[in-house]
Specification:
- Chains A, B: This is Methylenetetrahydrofolate dehydrogenase [NAD(+)].
- Chains A, B: Catalyzes oxidation of cytoplasmic one-carbon units for purine biosynthesis.
- The structure is a homodimer.
- Chain A is an alpha/beta fold.
- Among the domains of chain A are: 85 residues, Rossmann fold, CATH 3.40.50; 146 residues, NAD(P)-binding Rossmann-like Domain (Rossmann fold).
- Chain A has eleven helices and eleven strands.
- Chain A has an eight-stranded mixed sheet, with helices on both faces. A three-stranded parallel sheet of chain A has the order 3-2-4, with helices on both faces.
- In chain A, helix 2 runs parallel beside helix 10, helix 2 packs across helix 11 and helix 7 packs across helix 10.
- Chain A is globular and about 60 Å long.
- At the A-B interface, helix 5, helix 6 and strand 8 of A face helix 5, helix 6 and strand 8 of B.
Chain lengths: 341, 341
């Protein structure tokens, strides 16, 4: 059986960020008086094997980038908050992440906000979310010195869509998904809703599907609105799902259910299919339907998490009035400096 | 059948705050150059009859206090965020509340954080929660001009416990529940967990019960810790529930299930029983067991909500450097001023 499409692994996509991140880390180490490496601290307070392996990946990726990583295991969940406070206060810690779920309820949302905004590499702080939904790019819109970061999983999927050339660079930035239709199966606050919003803000028509209903995110005809609007289409039924998939250029799945499989027959010939669920949401025969298929996204997410950390360090330096000459524009200059170090 | 105990209605308890709130409102109106009344805006974006009747109560209570109330109905939930932004920006709006649930998922937690901290009468902003859990009383601990408010439902229950004399005023403030044992059935982030934390911070031994398990919140033997610690006791079984209720002086229910009834036989003779669920969680025969029984708490919650609003106005004035001589200590002076107005 020969297929027309290709499977693209997240690891290949993640590699495209290596050069940028490694150069940036070198600059930071060189510009720091003590030459210490940036430090990311991960908090693990569950016994989820998925979290364990995610933590291991994070460690490996950090090391490959010249970043220090420390896994802090918290046996009693109820002490996690105090441990986060310690890391918030510790100048030696540059980034903090938590392997969720911890409590598996709204207390997890509380914990997300406990991480200091300045060290929140996952981009879960309310300030980052609100800025994202409203297309606000800076924490300080007047002076534009501190970038508002994006939540790392939705950001990773955007970067994957760029890599897959779903974003058309002939269109002006901010409208590069104009004309594209996407279906996102998941409307969590962590991934699905922000992803649908980001894609719609970039010009796509996005159908957001959760267990209850289906919504349409769009900037209106001819992209008349500057940010996305949301419209309820009705209950999540097979008929409606099939209908919206008919013309979908992109199908993105994030269904957190072990045996869930997206019906291959709903996929348009040559569509781009991306799965970000821990479980494989597509059947193997997706390869016979999709032009490009990305079976998982975790490795790109980790790269984005570390990219966020470097931006946070820049923000902190900007707040202190230190220029690290480490913006994307300054990358070449930065690499020169790092060679001298 | 004659019972030894008494049923106490929330309306009677709420009345005890009338004088304080009315006097304070008069002072504010008098000290304001335009003499306008404080304005609370409620956002209703669901069709829940409970929310409707809560909104009506809020209106009636506001009017009885000389506060303006405006109910803003938002037909499309997806426009609610924009409407909140409008109210955040509007200087004529002093307080904002949302009738939850709106989406019934994590997007509701997002919306909670959209309300400006300065107008968040429900006390749901993360800053207020984090301060509450850590017993931080001021937003500006150095200057102590701006009080950190408490989430209004847990605060209402604390005020009810004070009214019922469960708080012993012979003990120093901060330890007034020392020696008391309480069971709280609900561990939501909105009520149950903050309530257990507040009570344990005040010296009680609190058993926090949710659908999965039972935890113990305490400051340790002889109140050796300055804030509560949490210990897992195990799964929520009838045996364990019965055991912890055996010596409980206070049983507080908030089970959001229509047909749930707390087993009357678990209640210690003469215990204090309080229900904050919309549904009556106690059987009628609770009256034969409890010394004091409070069947609902909503009316006290509304008083606390308005008390919070007045504190927020004070905070805003303090931030602007305006003294309104309206602290609790300044109440008598304030009443004098209001008479002149």
């Amino acid at each position: 059986m020969s297929f027309a499409g290709r499977t693209i692994l997240a690891s290949s996509i993640a590699k495209t960020f290596n050069e940028e991140i490694i150069a940036k880390v070198k600059t930071l180490v060189a510009s720091n008086p003590t030459h210490r490496k940036p430090l990311l601290v991960g908090f693990l307070a569950n016994e989820d094997p998925a979290a364990e392996s995610y933590a291991k990946w994070t460690q490996t990726t950090c090391e490959s980038y010249g970043i220090d990583y420390e896994l802090r295991r918290v046996a009693n969940k109820d002490y996690l908050e105090e441990s986060i406070f310690d890391a918030n206060r510790d100048d030696a810690v540059d980034g903090i992440m938590i392997y969720f779920p911890v409590f598996g309820n709204a207390q997890d949302q509380y914990l997300q906000q406990v991480v200091a905004k300045e060290k929140d590499v996952e981009g879960l702080n309310h300030v980052y979310y609100q800025n994202m939904y409203h297309n606000v790019r800076y924490l300080d819109p007047a002076t534009k010195l501190q970038k508002s970061i994006l939540p790392c999983t939705p950001l990773a999927i955007i970067k994957i869509l760029e890599y897959l050339k779903v974003y058309n660079t002939l269109l002006p930035q901010g409208n590069r998904l104009y004309g594209k239709t996407a279906v996102v199966l998941n409307r969590s606050e962590i991934v699905g809703r922000p992803l649908a919003a980001l894609m719609a803000n970039d010009g796509a028509t996005v159908y957001s599907v959760d267990i209850n209903n289906i919504q349409k995110f769009t900037r209106g005809q001819g992209l008349k609105f500057s940010k996305h609007q949301v419209q309820d289409l009705g209950d999540n039924t097979s008929e409606l799902l099939k209908e919206i998939c008919q013309d979908a250029d992109v199908i993105i799945t994030g269904v957190p259910v072990a045996n869930y499989k997206f019906p291959t027959e709903y996929i348009k010939e040559g569509a781009v299919c991306i799965n970000f669920s821990f479980h494989k949401n597509f059947n193997d025969d997706v390869k016979g339907k999709a032009s490009l298929y990305v079976p998982s996204t975790g490795k790109v997410t980790i790269s984005m998490l570390l990219r966020n950390m470097l931006r946070l360090i820049d923000n902190t330096n900007a707040a202190k009035g230190i220029t690290s000459s480490s913006s994307v524009e300054g990358k070449v200059a930065a690499m020169d400096i790092s060679k001298q170090a």
